[in-house]
Protein backbone atom coordinates (compact mmCIF):
# COMPACT_ATOMS: atom_id res chain seq x y z
CA UNK A 1 0.00 0.00 0.00
CA UNK A 2 1.43 3.37 -0.97
CA UNK A 3 0.21 5.05 2.24
CA UNK A 4 2.58 2.84 4.22
CA UNK A 5 5.44 3.51 1.80
CA UNK A 6 4.98 7.27 2.23
CA UNK A 7 4.48 6.84 5.99
CA UNK A 8 1.13 8.61 5.91
CA UNK A 9 -0.11 8.90 9.48
CA UNK A 10 -3.68 7.79 10.12
CA UNK A 11 -4.19 6.63 6.53
CA UNK A 12 -6.81 4.08 7.56
CA UNK A 13 -9.48 6.73 8.22
CA UNK A 14 -8.59 8.61 5.02
CA UNK A 15 -8.65 5.38 3.01
CA UNK A 16 -12.08 4.48 4.40
CA UNK A 17 -13.42 7.94 3.53
CA UNK A 18 -12.05 7.71 -0.03
CA UNK A 19 -13.47 4.21 -0.53
CA UNK A 20 -16.89 5.37 0.60
CA UNK A 21 -16.68 8.50 -1.54
CA UNK A 22 -15.84 6.38 -4.59
CA UNK A 23 -18.40 3.72 -3.67
CA UNK A 24 -15.83 0.93 -3.62
CA UNK A 25 -15.71 0.10 0.11
CA UNK A 26 -17.63 -3.13 -0.48
CA UNK A 27 -14.75 -4.33 -2.66
CA UNK A 28 -11.92 -3.71 -0.16
CA UNK A 29 -10.92 -7.39 -0.07
CA UNK A 30 -11.34 -8.08 -3.79
CA UNK A 31 -8.32 -8.81 -5.98
CA UNK A 32 -7.64 -6.14 -8.59
CA UNK A 33 -7.98 -8.63 -11.45
CA UNK A 34 -11.57 -9.31 -10.35
CA UNK A 35 -12.59 -5.62 -10.53
CA UNK A 36 -14.06 -3.80 -13.51
CA UNK A 37 -11.80 -1.39 -15.37
CA UNK A 38 -13.50 1.63 -13.83
CA UNK A 39 -13.24 0.25 -10.31
CA UNK A 40 -9.55 -0.56 -10.85
CA UNK A 41 -9.06 3.01 -12.08
CA UNK A 42 -10.71 4.43 -8.95
CA UNK A 43 -8.65 2.19 -6.66
CA UNK A 44 -5.40 3.03 -8.44
CA UNK A 45 -5.99 6.77 -8.36
CA UNK A 46 -7.06 6.96 -4.75
CA UNK A 47 -4.36 4.54 -3.58
CA UNK A 48 -1.86 7.30 -4.38
CA UNK A 49 -4.09 10.17 -3.28
CA UNK A 50 -2.37 10.99 -0.02
CA UNK A 51 -1.31 14.35 1.40
CA UNK A 52 1.47 14.93 -1.10
CA UNK A 53 2.39 18.48 -2.06
CA UNK A 54 2.02 17.58 -5.74
CA UNK A 55 -0.08 15.03 -7.63
CA UNK A 56 0.22 14.13 -11.31
CA UNK A 57 -2.72 12.56 -13.11
CA UNK A 58 -2.60 11.18 -16.63
CA UNK A 59 -6.11 10.75 -17.99
CA UNK A 60 -7.66 10.03 -14.58
CA UNK A 61 -11.20 9.88 -15.97
CA UNK A 62 -10.58 6.98 -18.36
CA UNK A 63 -12.95 4.13 -17.62
CA UNK A 64 -14.93 5.95 -14.93
CA UNK A 65 -18.71 6.21 -14.79
CA UNK A 66 -20.44 9.57 -14.38
CA UNK A 67 -20.36 9.35 -10.57
CA UNK A 68 -16.67 8.46 -10.66
CA UNK A 69 -15.93 11.41 -12.94
CA UNK A 70 -17.72 13.84 -10.61
CA UNK A 71 -15.99 12.34 -7.58
CA UNK A 72 -12.57 12.57 -9.20
CA UNK A 73 -13.05 16.18 -10.28
CA UNK A 74 -14.34 17.17 -6.84
CA UNK A 75 -11.41 15.44 -5.15
CA UNK A 76 -8.88 17.15 -7.41
CA UNK A 77 -10.49 20.53 -6.69
CA UNK A 78 -10.39 19.85 -2.95
CA UNK A 79 -6.67 18.95 -3.15
CA UNK A 80 -5.97 22.16 -5.08
CA UNK A 81 -7.92 24.23 -2.55
CA UNK A 82 -5.88 22.59 0.23
CA UNK A 83 -2.71 23.87 -1.46
CA UNK A 84 -1.49 20.87 -3.46
CA UNK A 85 0.07 21.44 -6.86
CA UNK A 86 -1.81 19.36 -9.41
CA UNK A 87 -1.37 18.42 -13.02
CA UNK A 88 -4.00 16.49 -14.87
CA UNK A 89 -4.73 15.78 -18.49
CA UNK A 90 -8.41 15.37 -19.17
Provide an overview of this structure.
- Helix content is 47%, strand content 11%.
- The chain has a single domain, classed as P-loop containing nucleotide triphosphate hydrolases (Rossmann fold, 3-Layer(aba) Sandwich), CATH 3.40.50.300.
- The chain is built from four helices and two strands, in the order H-H-H-E-H-E.
- By secondary structure, it is mostly helical.
Task: Explain briefly what this protein structure is.
This protein is mostly helical and 90 residues long. The protein has helices at 2-5, 11-21, 37-47, 66-81; strands at 54-58, 85-89. It has 4 helices and 2 strands, in the order H-H-H-E-H-E.
Order of helices and strands: HHHEHE
Number of helical runs? 4
- Portion in helices: 40-55%
Number of domains: 1
Name the structural class: mainly alpha
Largest beta-sheet characterization: 2 strands, parallel
With strands numbered from the N-terminus, the spatial order across the biggest sheet is 1-2
What oligomeric state is this? single chain
How far the N terminus sits from the C terminus, by CA atoms, comes to 26 Å
Residue ranges: pLDDT <50 for 5 or more in a row? none
CATH-level-4 superfamily name: P-loop containing nucleotide triphosphate hydrolases
Strand content: 5-15%
CATH class: Alpha Beta
CATH topology: Rossmann fold
Mean pLDDT rating: 79
Radius of gyration: 13 Å
The overall strand count is 2
Gross geometry: globular
